[in-house]
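call fold(seq) -> tokens
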Amino acid sequence: GLNDKGASLVKRFKYSLESVLSYRESEKEQRRERLSEAERLVRDEENELRRIQSEINEARRQGTGGVSIEFLVLRERYLIRLRNDEKNHTTRLQQLRDNAEEARQQLLKASQEVLKMEKVKARELRQWEQEARREEQQVLDEAGSTRSFRVANIL
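ret:
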């Protein structure tokens, strides 16, 4: 093995784009959080839409037989308002789904960028390791030839 002097000659691997990779990873995490929030908003809106549709169905079931005209008029107004709410929430839900899909695409893009950079980092590390092995072998070869030179001079 190498002595302490030889070990200090070995430099540590440093990825040249580490700060960029770190930034991209941070960006990816932010996009993951954005997607999570967008998906939560979609779920909330779906629940609200189901609640409104349930109210519509309940209002339709009420008042079958033996009800006053006033009740029917009020029920119809209520149903009109609910259908209008349903339409608005359906539109909003589609917008939220579009936003979530956009966030998903942004996360995918960020993930691909990080993966690309990690592959480059791995390639740089392999090259660095090969170079380090070459340098280490060179040091060992020089040490070996110096030792054999000393031994030859002693004899």
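The mean pLDDT is 88.
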